[in-house]
Each structure stands twice: as C-alpha cells, then as structure tokens.
User: Fold this.
Amino acid sequence: MQDSPIEPASERLWQKTQYANLVRYVPSGTYFARMRVNGKLIRKSLKTDVISVAKLRLSDLEKSERQSMGLLDISKGKLTFSDAEQIYRQRIHANLSLKQRTKAYCLERIKALYKSWPTLPKTEIRAIAKTDCLN
Assistant:
C-alpha cells in the first residue's frame, strides 16, 4: 500500500492530542512531550499511555525544562564561570540526597577557587584550559 501525498508514513506514527505540547506515539500508545524551549526542540517520553497521567507529567516536565533552560542563555556560548557557579549552587541546593555539611563543603571549595584564582568569575568556560587549572 502506498502513502497518500497528503499524509506521509511518518505523520501516522505521531498523533496530535487536544493538549498543547502533548503527542502520542501510535505504535506503542505512549505519550510524549514535544516542546520548544529557547529555540531548542525537546521531545521526551512521559512513560505512560494514560492521557490524564500524561497531562500531569507534561506540566511538571515543562516547568523543569523551562526553569533549567531559562536560567541563562547558554546557547550563545557566552557562559562565564560565575554563571556556571550559579547553576551549580542551585543544583547543590536542590539535591535532597546531600547532607547539609556536604553542601557547605561544596560552597567552601568555590570560595577557595576564587581566592586562589581572582580572575576566574569573569572567565568564559570555553577559555579555561587544562594548564590554567594546573597552575
């Protein structure tokens, strides 16, 4: 059987839903999130074939993706060390598996880095070489 010119075979694999950013993969029935965040297309499985569960997981996924991508405009390649430090601090703070003393230790290491390398906060990540770290 040939594909009709209106609907190619790849289009029949993905079914739109009545909800924005939610699509269903027809062969397995699994729902996927399909969204664009800062110009980047993201498609992730919601690991369910129940639409009510998929809606709930979609909102959680959208929130986390937009929050993580919205921190900084990393896509332009202008990430400085202080920007990366901000992301690191937020991840350390949000990690519930770490004890308070471990979190404090991580922050102490950042202070020590800044003390030994005063120009580090303004340095772009891509400009830091292995030799710089060893010095």
Summary: Residues 109 and 115 are 10 Å apart (CA to CA). Helices lie at 9-13, 51-70, 81-94, 100-116, 130-134.
